[in-house]
Write a structure and sequence with these properties.
Layout lengths: L5 E5 L23 E5 L1 H4 L4 H12 L14 H4 L18 E3 L1 H6 L5 E5 L9 H17 L6 E5 L3 H13 L3 E6 L5 H9 L3 E5 L3 H11 L5 E3 L5 H7 L1 H9 L7 E5 L4 H15 L8 E7 L4 H7 L26 H10 L3 E5 L1 H12 L7 H15 L9 E5 L7 H9 L20 H14 L3
Parallel strand pairs: 4-12, 5-6, 5-8, 6-7, 9-10, 9-12, 10-11
Antiparallel strand pairs: 1-2, 3-4
Helix pairs in contact: 5-6, 5-9, 6-7, 9-11, 10-11, 11-13, 14-15
Length: 446
């Protein structure tokens, strides 16, 4: 059989192929981003049903490294990395939560939430970081003089990089915007031994600095402009379809900032279609915060030109990005999937998260953005009651405890907090407690 291979190639179609183990991030000809391209002829040697059987078998094994939701699809991700170089925490295989009560409330009974935050560091970023750090480990083994791996982050990327670098015995350097990430996100890279640089700027400012620093090829860039990350993150879409016995949902809604995640989602689904595992594509929805909405503004003009903004402070801090690096890739995906870009303001995203929480979830603010966009599309009749809808929850709500506390204390700026549920302070008097419980039960309707 022809061996499985993959390489970097320019997203704009320039000639040239580059090894996944080269230190390269842009096309040498035009400066455009690179993407990972797989040898489809080699992949097609195994038919669609055989791929399904293989993936199903690996999903139920403990064999290294295939028990990982990412490395169980190694041939589709990074086929030439040695198993001995792989750094994995058995990421992936996150559960689909049937949002039954919330779906009933909005008349979309087939509503599901893909809980990507149920991962080692609490976000979907683990899926990409396992691939990137594994490739770096192999580069070093082959003699590439890499001293450290660096990223700019709004919190989740830095946590994933720090954890996987620590597991690999590599030094991580993370650039964080000062006072713009949650305490839980800040302590993760600190605990994992990363060099944490807190810069008095926003994410876009941090991104500009890390690009400059990584011109030194001994410091390897780990942001999503590096397409090795995309290869791991693309398994989300594949996994969703597999969890529905290879049936494609009608809609997938995902919160977006730097646009690597929606690019990855589309890439995985397109590979499934091209290899015959599915025969249709879902419609994709990119959900943005109205405070950081360059992709939404570009969509409003039919993507006539790239819009950048100075991102304003938003509760959805992980997507507080005004100059997304994966813009070109994301446009291609939105067009290929008949996609939609919509936004949600601060009150809408906070209310959506609180509404979801009252049905058993614990939604992070970014999932709140995606849910608020879902509600808008349902209200407009774009999403119907017969549709199967997946909302991708990108991080665990416990990473954003301050957001939850602020909501229920009624202290979030620009948020009305109609669903507040503060603790009721009472004296240690059984009669008072009984009366209060009775009064509250009469008021509250489940």
């Amino acid at each position: 059989m022809k061996p499985y291979r993959a390489w970097f190639q320019c997203v704009r179609g320039c000639e040239g192929r580059y090894s996944l183990f080269d230190v390269i991030y842009h096309c040498p000809t035009c400066g455009g981003l690179l993407e990972v391209v797989h040898d489809h002829e080699a992949l097609a040697q195994r038919d669609a049903e055989a791929w399904k059987r293989l993936f199903e078998q690996r999903a139920h094994t403990t064999e290294w490294p295939y028990a990982s939701g990412v490395w169980g699809k190694k041939e589709w991700v990074c086929p030439e990395v040695d198993d001995t170089s792989i750094v994995s925490m058995y990421e992936g295989h996150t559960n689909l939560f049937w949002a039954e009560r919330l779906g009933q409330q909005i008349d979309v009974p087939d509503l599901w939430v893909k809980l990507c935050g149920n991962s080692h560091t609490g976000s979907f970023k683990d899926l990409g970081m396992t691939v990137l750090v594994s490739a770096v480990r192999q580069m070093i083994a082959q003699g590439t003089p890499i001293r450290a791996v660096a990223c700019a982050s709004t919190g989740d990327t830095s946590a994933a990089l720090a954890a996987y670098a620590a597991a690999a015995g590599l030094q991580a350097i993370v650039f964080l915007p000062k006072d713009k990430v949650s305490a839980a996100q800040l302590i993760q890279p600190i605990a994992n031994g990363a060099m944490v640089l807190s810069l008095d700027t926003d994410f876009d400012g941090c991104m500009a600095i890390v690009k400059e620093v990584t011109r030194d090829n001994t410091i390897y860039l780990a942001n999503s402009m590096n397409s090795l990350r995309v290869e791991g993150q693309k398994t989300v879409g594949i996994e969703i379809v597999q969890q529905f016995d290879w049936e494609v949902p009608d809609w997938i809604i995902i919160p977006v900032g730097n646009l690597g995640n929606i690019s990855a989602l589309g890439k995985g689904l397109l590979l499934m279609r091209d290899l015959g595992l599915i025969d249709k594509l879902p419609r994709l929805v990119a959900a943005q915060s109205a405070q950081a909405n360059p992709f939404y503004l570009s969509y409003q003009t039919g993507f006539e030109s790239m819009v950048t903004v100075t991102a304003k402070r938003t509760l959805a801090s992980a997507i507080q990005i005004g100059n997304p690096v994966s813009y070109e890739k994301a446009i291609k995906v939105i067009r290929q999937f008949d996609g939609i870009v919509e936004q949600a303001n601060e009150d809408e995203l906070a209310d959506a998260a609180a509404r979801a929480d009252l049905t058993g979830m614990y939604a992070c603010p970014h999932t709140g953005v995606a849910l608020a966009v879902l509600f808008k599309l349902v209200e407009r009749g774009v999403i119907g009651s017969q549709d199967r809808v997946i909302v991708v929850s990108t991080a665990h709500g416990l990473k954003f405890t301050g957001f939850k506390i602020g909501y229920h204390e009624g202290t979030l700026e620009g948020v009305e907090a109609l669903r507040r549920n503060p603790p009721i302070e009472l004296p240690p008097d059984a009669a008072v407690v009984r009366d209060t419980i009775a009064r509250e039960l009469d008021k509250r309707k489940i």
